[in-house]
Amino acid sequence: MLEQILLSLGYIRPEVALVFTFLSAIVADLVTQRKAIVAGIVLGGLIATAYYVVEQVGLNVSTFSNMLAVDPFSVFFKCVIIGSSILIVMFSLTSNEVNSSLRRIGEYYALLVAMTTGMFLMVGSSNLLMMYLSLELTSISSYILAGFTKEAPDSAEASLKYVIYGALSSGLMLYGISIIYGLTGALDIYSINQVLAQGGTGKIALLIAGVLAIAGFGYKISAVPFHFWTPDVYQGAPVTITAFLSVASKAAGFAMLMRFLKVTFIDSTVLNVPLGMWATIKGYELTNVIIVLSVLTMTLGNLVAIWQDNMKRLLAYSSIAHAGYMLLGLTVLGNDGFAATMIYFVVYLFMNLGAFYVVMLVANKTGSEDIRDYKGLGSRAPLLAVAMAIFLVSLTGLPPTAGFIGKLYVFAALIRANLIWLAIVGALNSVVSLYYYVRIFRNMFLRDAEERAEPLTFEFSNTFILLVLLVPTIVLGLYFGPLVEFAQYSVAMFGVK
Amino acid sequence: MIPLDYYLVLSAFMFCVGVLGVVVRRNAIIVFMSIELMLNSVNLSLIAFSSFLGDPTGQMLVFFVMTVAAAEAAVGLAIIIALFRNKQTVNIDEINILKW
Question: Which helix (H) or strand (E) holds A70?
């Protein structure tokens, strides 16, 4: 036992680095008045963590008696999460909204690291207890961060709604876990898989438990009908946190759901599988459940986004719709589909963070997030408007941007699995999404600002971060071979084919 | 010995009361109490299962649930105070800047 723990410690260097960063950020916040030091420590710590994550590429082990897996799958998602954390810290350095509460800014960075730690644990969890705890670590930190600008009434309101929906869905998930534990006598998903494979477990009870557990996952990835918190929280939270929730937190939720689906329901005794899908245990064919979730999620997200005037709220609904596209990849319960979702995440990281960064820069200068205040942005800040246009084209999924590649692989996986009608539904949804993205274009380029507005000027650091996001959005649309290979390699999870 | 079913029925009943409380009650503090009730019903069923299966894992999970529930309540109450300073109310119906 002790030996196992000592051995495992060597495999969790990124998490240990994060915890140290968290502690040093708190101490630094106490002893120094210059908050830039805290930000520096956090940025340094995150970069060190990124180094340790890269070091883990190629590992495929399970640590702490099957609590936490360190496998290509978790390392892939850790890359996505650490990448977005570093970008969000850089966003925060230039955000007026966050820096307006200068006295508490140290806590902000510390909690950001705590949230990253939670997400790192989420992507590796292979035990229901671990899943619950890491989900809560992420959630509790994000409740506080969503209400960070507590003087703003909408921020406090967003935070309250977040905590109520979050606690409700984690309660539902926990009840599901307790039933699963009662039926199978195990919390470890590998053991649960073996018990299910033997058969004889009460189907109805297990179905209820499964639906309850899905509520926890669905809340984290904001899938319909567990999405109610998303628009409110995204609108009320500081824009940096909104961007972070929309990418990293969703990635962690998806990783946890994918691992749960694959490990728990795969039937590893069947060797020949048709259409590149895994054989699931008889009686647990989940494809239809995920199809319903996915179609509902993307359709509702896209349709409601049409009526939004607040940019953060519009992007919130757009991110719900994107969760739907990613769920499409999961409907193909096979390596193709999972790899497609993973490719989508990398692409989504750049384009979605980019769109939120533009919203943040505009809000820094004009103090407004209203779509009507984007009128004439094309002449006031040409670089910003062009960048926004590219991010939106990519979010729609048009070539030659990265968003096209993301959608292409998802649809290709669907067609290969004979789910052509689902691919058509997805494509139709992209057309709907074009409508509200075009509204932003039209305001930026075809309408003049109402009164003579000054041109907006930005500092070099803003332009630099913008380019960091813009270049991959274009380049990944043209040169995506390595990304696809890395994703296909990373589908492998510990203990399953 | 009391059969397992009794515990499970009680736990399911407590859970339903909790969910109903979250959905129906308008006072944010009562909503939080209902959430605590939900979590405690889970604890009850976990302990019942654990004792029935003769396996301590379930009881271990209960400790974690209690700790997390405390953390969640602490954060939730802090948020309610922040909101109360802004709006002088904890009624959920009056907290409605953000909708649709």
Answer: strand A68-70
Number of domains present in the structure of chain A: 1
Q: What tens digit of pLDDT does each residue of A460-475 get?
A: 889 999 999 999 999 9
Is A405 within the bounds of a domain?
yes
Closest-approach residue (CA) in chain A for B4: A182
Indicate if the alpha-carbon torsion angle A28, A32, A38, A44 is positive or negative: negative
Burial A44-59 (b: 16+ CB within 10 A, else e): ebbebbbebbeebeee
CA distance A295 to chain B (A): 20
- The answer to whether position A195 is within a domain reads no
Please give the C-alpha separations between residue A459 and each of A94, A400, A489, in angstroms, as whole numbers: 10, 29, 40
Residue A185 pLDDT > 60, yes or no? Answer: yes
A409 in a structural domain: yes
Please report which helix (H) or strand (E) contains residue A180, including its range. helix A153-184
Closest Cα in chain A, distance from residue B80 (Å):
7
The parent domain of residue A445 ranges over 295-497
Can you give the CATH number for the domain in which B83 is found?
1.10.287.3510
Q: Are A397 and A406 in contact (CB under 8 A)?
A: yes
- Using CA atoms, how far residue A464 sits from A4, A132, B52, in Å, is 45, 38, 61
**Is B95 part of a structural domain of the chain?**
no
* Closest alpha carbon within chain B to A187: B57
Upstream peptide bond of B3 is cis (omega within 30 degrees of 0): no
- A334: phi then psi, degrees, rounded to nearest 5: -160, 170
Provide the number of structural domains found in chain B. 1
Show residues of chain A in contact with B80, CB under 8 Å.
160
Closest residue of chain A to B88, computed from CA coordinates:
A153
Distance CA A107, CA A113 (A): 10
| pLDDT tens, position by position, A262-318 | 888 887 776 666 656 777 777 777 788 889 999 999 999 999 999 888 999 999 999
pTM recorded for the entire structure: 0.94
Residue A86 belongs to a domain: no
Task: Give the structural domain span for B78.
Answer: 4-87
